[in-house]
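TASK: fixed-backbone design
INPUT:
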């Protein structure tokens, strides 16, 4: 196993308190076909997008946001660079109405042409890039094989506008250690400094529930849990807990929940509010609708949307489930059937983490 050098780690995310609002392109197009993306089942996901920005409706939807905000505006929707006219309209709207706000977006990297790179630099848009390392083949084209795109990534990094790779952990890309090794090798192979150590892996996050682990994948996942717990505890001993949270993403939450459970034997009950932050600051579409979890539109009716989202999270099974602290109940974008399908996986996942962590603690606590 190659051991990364964690010096000079650069923070990757915007604190919730610094977010002005999210703006989403409904019906957005995308040039990739990620097997695990819930958007693959959405209308228009791989076609042309004809949605037009409505300034008056947006003004009304965002009337609670201070025009002088210095917070960050996050742009979402399919692949932003594949929805060129909408992206340019969003940037123009934000700069005209919120001149002090920052801009950021996540892109898949395959469309980072010289023209788009210049646009990003000219408008000072901070970007993250989705790339699944050894699992990239399940997303689509591997743009890191394209020297021109790698050069543009490097240029964006020099401008301090590229902050991270975002890697998704799922049943076909189940090894955290292999993901880490991939990005370290890739930087050396390209002979291009994509960024400082630890090679700008923003976080290793879980895929949407329909594509997570199946029983036949459990042995692979179990072996990786051993690696993650070992890495976590080593870094904790090095007083590097800040890095752990930013590097391992949701895995940090899983471990902390397990440790708390081992210490107190409490049952975790999910938060009544959505855990995606959609009630912390406005999430709107370019047509002026209020949006939750990037997929549920309630025509600007905030109270109806709140009731709908919390209602989706109140299945009796979730109320008493010991692993609800991991999955947070059912996402409003999914269905009860999908929850049932994945409960066994979450229980196995949680139980395995509990077993491994308990062993590392020398069986000082009961499982």
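OUTPUT:
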């Amino acid at each position: 196993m190659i051991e990364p050098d964690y010096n000079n780690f650069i923070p990757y995310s915007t604190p919730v308190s610094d977010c002005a609002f999210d703006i989403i392109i409904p019906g957005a197009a995308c040039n990739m076909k990620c097997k695990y993306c819930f958007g693959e089942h959405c209308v228009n996901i791989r076609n042309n997008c004809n949605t037009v920005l409505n300034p008056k409706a947006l003004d009304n939807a965002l009337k609670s946001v201070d025009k002088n905000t210095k917070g960050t505006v996050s742009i979402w929707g399919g692949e932003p660079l594949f929805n060129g006219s909408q992206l340019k309209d969003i940037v123009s709207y934000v700069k005209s109405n919120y001149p002090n706000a920052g801009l950021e977006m996540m892109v898949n990297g395959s469309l980072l042409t010289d023209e788009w790179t210049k646009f990003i630099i000219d408008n000072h848009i901070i970007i993250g890039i989705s790339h699944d390392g050894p699992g990239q083949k399940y997303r689509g084209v591997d743009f890191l094989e394209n020297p021109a795109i790698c050069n543009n990534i490097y240029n964006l990094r020099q401008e301090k506008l590229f902050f991270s790779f975002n890697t998704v952990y799922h049943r076909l890309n189940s090894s955290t250690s292999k993901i880490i090794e991939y990005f370290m090798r890739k930087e050396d192979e390209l002979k291009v400094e994509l960024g400082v150590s630890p090679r700008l892996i923003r976080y290793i996050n879980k895929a949407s529930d329909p594509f997570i682990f199946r029983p036949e994948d459990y042995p692979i996942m179990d072996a990786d849990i051993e690696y993650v717990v070992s890495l976590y505890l080593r870094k904790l001993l090095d007083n590097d807990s800040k890095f752990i949270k930013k590097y391992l993403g949701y895995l940090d939450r899983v471990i902390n929940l397990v440790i708390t459970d081992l210490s107190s034997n409490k049952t975790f009950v999910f938060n009544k509010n959505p855990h995606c932050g959609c009630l912390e600051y406005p999430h709107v579409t370019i047509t002026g609708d209020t949006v939750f979890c990037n997929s549920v539109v309630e025509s600007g009716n905030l109270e109806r949307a709140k009731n709908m989202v919390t209602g989706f999270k109140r299945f009796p099974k979730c109320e008493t489930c010991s692993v609800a602290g991991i999955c947070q109940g059912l996402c409003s974008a999914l269905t009860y059937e999908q929850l049932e399908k994945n409960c066994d996986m979450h229980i196995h996942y949680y139980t395995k983490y509990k077993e491994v962590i308990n062993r590392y603690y020398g069986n000082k606590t009961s499982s």
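COMMENT: DSSP finds twelve helices and nine strands in the chain.
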